[in-house]
Amino acid sequence: MKAVLIRLITPLLFWSCPWVFSEEAEYIFSIGSKAPGRVAYEAELLQHLLDVSSPTHGKASLKLDDRKLATLRLWNEAHDGKNTHIVTSSNWQALENTPFEIIRIPIPIQNGLLGYRKCLALESSLHEINGISDSQTFRKLVVGQAEGWRDVNRYQESNIPVVVSPRYENLVPMLFAKRFTCLPLGILEVDAIAEKNEGVAIAEQLIIFYKLEVYIGVTAKLPELASRLHEGLKEIKANGEFDTLFYKHYRQAIDQLNEGERKVFFLKEAGDTQTKADLIHRHPVHVIDSITPTSPVTPVRKK
User: Fold this and answer.
1) Rounded Cα gap, residues 84 and 79, in angstroms
2) Are the CB atoms for 141 and 175 separated by under 8 Å?
3) Residue 214: which of 42, 33, 32 has the closest Cα?
4) pLDDT digits (tens, 9 = 90+) for 198-236
5) pLDDT at residue 15 greater than cutoff 50
6) Residue 182: helix, strand or coil by DSSP?
7) Which of 124, 183, 189, 267 has its CA 20 to 30 A from that of 209?
8) Measured between alpha carbons, how far is residue 98 from residues 176, 211, 261 in Å?
């Protein structure tokens, strides 16, 4: 009888206790078309969060999925929880009025760095863009953005004309076709894109900034994973490991931001009470002007 009980109890213990089950869990992180520097940082951060929580949750590894998915398709996959477990995004407004359930971890992971944008432009337009010196001339820019990006609303609110493409991949060809004059891209990605496309260059004297925070999202099918990452993120924020990892990857980009006399235009969102002084205190750069929201311009949609 005792032998029979042991045979019955052992499998139950094996499956119910994470410290008994030794197989390593694998979680899929969607990297899509993110810039290589951002992927390197976010992948290392997520793996570190899994590692620091392994004593209580067991070993786990990260698998990168580089499929380029439209925003709603990505949310749908994360909601489904089969091929996408983890996402990172600044565009959480896109989840509103959708049936998708994704758990957002309420701690930003990019320290606002993604909000700094440089203009990718035709080489023939560089002198004009670098010569912009005030909000009046700044508003003459026509910018290109991808459909679904949160950035579109910010340019609309600032009364800056926006040309919208349904696909990210079409933006550079549209720049060559002169559909717009400036393609604002994050400082973590713009250099790599400029290097790949002869005939375009970066307007180094002009920087656009707006508040843009990135958060980790986890499929609602795995609430224990969301809790695990949240706990790990709080731990490394408190012990300083987060800052060490952040500056390991982004020190060069931050130092470059502070070089020379670049002109930074701060696009404020409705209800934002930050001043130029607040921005300078947070990021020591020269802010030439802040653009207060006005009557929005309707974006022009191009294919």
Assistant:
1) 8
2) no
3) 42
4) 999 999 989 999 888 999 999 999 999 999 999 999 999
5) no
6) strand
7) 124
8) 35, 24, 44
Task: Cite the beta strand spans of 211-286 per DSSP E.
Answer: 215-219, 263-267
Work out the end-to-end distance of the chain between its first and last CA atoms, rounded to an integer number of angstroms: 74
Instruction: Find out whether 214 and 90 touch, Cβ atoms under 8 Å.
Output: yes
Number of H helices, E strands in the chain: 12, 13
CB neighbours of residue 32 within 10 Å = 19
Structure tokens at 21: 């089950």
Rounded Cα distance, 197 and 251, in Å: 26
Classified as helix, coil or strand, 138 is: helix
77, 84 in Cβ contact below 8 A?
Answer: yes
Q: Are 24-111+213-250 and 113-212+260-301 in the same CATH fold?
A: yes
Strands (E), 82-199: 86-89, 102-104, 116-122, 143-146, 162-165, 183-186
CA distance 145 to 185: 9
Top pLDDT among 22 and 44 is at 44
Output 301 or 178, whichever has higher pLDDT: 178
User: What CA–CA distance (Å, rounded) separates 278 from 220?
Assistant: 36
Name the amino acid, one letter, at 292.
T
- Say which residue the tokens 């005939």 belong to: 199
SS3 105: coil
CATH of 113-212+260-301, one of 3.40.50.300, 1.10.3720.10, 3.40.190.10, 3.10.20.80: 3.40.190.10
| 24-111+213-250 CATH | 3.40.190.10
- Is residue 162 within 8 A of residue 299, CB to CB? The reply is yes
- Cβ–Cβ < 8 Å for 158, 267: yes
Enter the tokens of residue 232.
């790990």
